[in-house]
Backbone:
């Protein structure tokens, strides 16, 4: 706990969902508490490729390089490039799943993701 830096890398997470926190900070017990666990494709790729950040995997490096070229920036560590790359990835998965930009449901989510990526561009 007293160690700083990247000595430990989180590759699996557990989220214990027990309460809903209101805007004023009060907690209300959830009707069905649960545990969310996961690793995710990017974390598996990071472990397999021996890097510590999801943004250092081959998929994101290529997306970040392409976004840097299109936006004309040389700083490949810019957080906006990471947002663009992450949103391109998310959009590709949604579109592959048959989702198209729209005004409701998953289509609205896709539309918002694309717009946010464009703002960062």
Residues:
């Amino acid at each position: 706990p007293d160690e700083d830096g990247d000595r430990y890398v989180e590759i699996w997470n557990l989220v214990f969902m027990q309460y809903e926190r209101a805007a004023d900070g009060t907690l209300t017990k959830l009707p069905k508490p649960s545990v969310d666990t996961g690793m995710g494709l990017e974390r598996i790729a990071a472990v397999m490729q021996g890097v510590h950040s999801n943004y250092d995997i081959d998929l994101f490096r290529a997306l970040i390089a392409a976004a840097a070229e299109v936006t004309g920036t040389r700083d490949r560590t810019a957080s906006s490039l990471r947002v663009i790359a992450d949103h391109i990835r998310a959009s590709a998965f949604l579109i592959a799943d048959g989702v198209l930009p729209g005004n409701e449901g998953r289509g609205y989510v896709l539309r918002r993701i694309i717009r946010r990526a464009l703002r960062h561009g």
In short: The radius of gyration is 18 Å. The mean pLDDT is 91. The first strand starts at residue 13 and ends at 21. Strands lie at 13-21, 27-38.
